[in-house]
């Protein structure tokens, strides 16, 4: 960048400063989407160091999950909610890559997560994907893959029908809403593989459970789960 371009860039940033997607403070040179304070001080769960964490417990007796994890705690009105709102609804798809790399660095410390062969994002229905322009879970998956050296497997787990929003539904209603929604298109690719299934937020776990049930129909498949946040 030449001197004139740098001057113009600094001038524009004074008038229209870039803001942190979590706390909305002004970013300084070298910061990208997240300010340094948020990168280090968002509410990390450290679940990669706790095999029997709350996310893993959600699937006990429901899915034979090898390991489960969420990067952050999600509190209503908190910074993680702001981050995810920008990620899902404001077109800030690069947030997924950034938090995926942060999560991937943590999971690379875990022998269980390091053994993943494929990372599979929870799919969006094609109508929703067209509306949003990207699958936020796939963005997260690509960020994870950079650190875990695993392959992102797209279009193998597919959503066969659109569903109504899960917001305000009970756990049972959420589970019912997700029945017979997902399918595997190329099960042969996943035989005897370790799959890391990823999504943006874990609430009741109904969507992940429905995906996991379908994936575990594949012979020899081992399943682990990772999300950006766990809703407290």
From TrEMBL:
<feature type="domain" description="Phosphoribosyltransferase">
    <location>
        <begin position="138"/>
        <end position="228"/>
    </location>
</feature>
<keyword id="KW-0808">Transferase</keyword>
<dbReference type="Pfam" id="PF00156">
    <property type="entry name" value="Pribosyltran"/>
</dbReference>
<dbReference type="GO" id="GO:0016757">
    <property type="term" value="F:glycosyltransferase activity"/>
</dbReference>
<comment type="similarity">
    <text>Belongs to the ComF/GntX family.</text>
</comment>
<dbReference type="InterPro" id="IPR051910">
    <property type="entry name" value="ComF/GntX_DNA_util-trans"/>
</dbReference>
<keyword id="KW-0328">Glycosyltransferase</keyword>
<dbReference type="InterPro" id="IPR029057">
    <property type="entry name" value="PRTase-like"/>
</dbReference>
<dbReference type="InterPro" id="IPR000836">
    <property type="entry name" value="PRTase_dom"/>
</dbReference>
<protein>
    <submittedName>
        <fullName>Amidophosphoribosyltransferase</fullName>
    </submittedName>
</protein>
